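Milestone M4 deliverable, item 7.
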Amino acid sequence: MYDSMDTQEKGNSDADALSFLATNGYLPLLLADHDGMVQAYSNLFDSSTQFFSLPENSPQKTAFHAASGSAASEEGYSDLPGEKSIMTIKTRNRCPDILQQHAEVAWNLTGAFLQDIARKIASSLGLESEGATHADFVEDVQVFEAEGGEPKVNAERHKDLGLLSLVIGHSPGLEVLDPVTGLWEAIESEDFVPKEAQVRSGGLTATLLSGETMALLTRGRYKAGVHRVLCAPDRDNPYRFSIVFTLRPGLAPVYTMHFESDIVGRFAPEEQMDGQSSAELFERIRRSHWNVNVVKDLREEQQKRLLALAKAAKTSGSGGVAEEFVPPPGPPPVRTQSHVMGMG
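Output delivered:
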């Protein structure tokens, strides 16, 4: 929260912010409230623009081509024609030189920030065991360039798979689903982020999303945020650039008993894990979702498979199950700056 607040005010504000995140699955943040973030992400956007403007046969791109198929968005550079280009960074030695310096600065700042939030979430749920509050984490960063032209969906409705994601936007496009009204909200627009707040943050927006792993380990006490990206760039900005920083559990045994408390409750026998790897947990979640960042044909194949499984089980799909795109029903309600929240 704001540095000028006294300890009690900051505590109350953090509690309000966590409550909002738990209920909605998303939380708008003011980047300017966090030391170094505006400069770090402004620099990374500048170097990202240079990277994406390179020809496709540039060694900066070809040396880091991602795997094909379902692993296309796991690490490296991939281009989805007519939709977007993605550079996923997980390690320093798999990061193009043109991005490396600025990506490392943003990585260090954001990793510490999200790990601190994860531990505050654990505390809010009464999870004081070492397994919950001293967990190891891994992070990755994805830089996106979404193609312009006619308004279109560049990322269909989905939930992120990890614990937390921080989405930094260069221009509006991210929309979140309000779980109460069922309406899409343009969370990066001036209706939600007042102009003066955007100016303070160098024209950048920041949105925190909780993911499917967070929802699973908290037994739904923190909802996974449903979102999509609807691109309608203007003439002066033909592309939408965004950076997504994702926090996931580190590779380690998972004991669901470490995530039980009077607030969270107890895991059902079929939900329990007793030392299985976090990789197994992540794979279990991944198998029940389709990937929004692979080529369209493969994405549709994954959607059909999941729909068939849902029908066979006589259950309705959710999260990663395909749905027909319906434009948002008019502009969202006007919000004041008090609705742009911070965590500190």
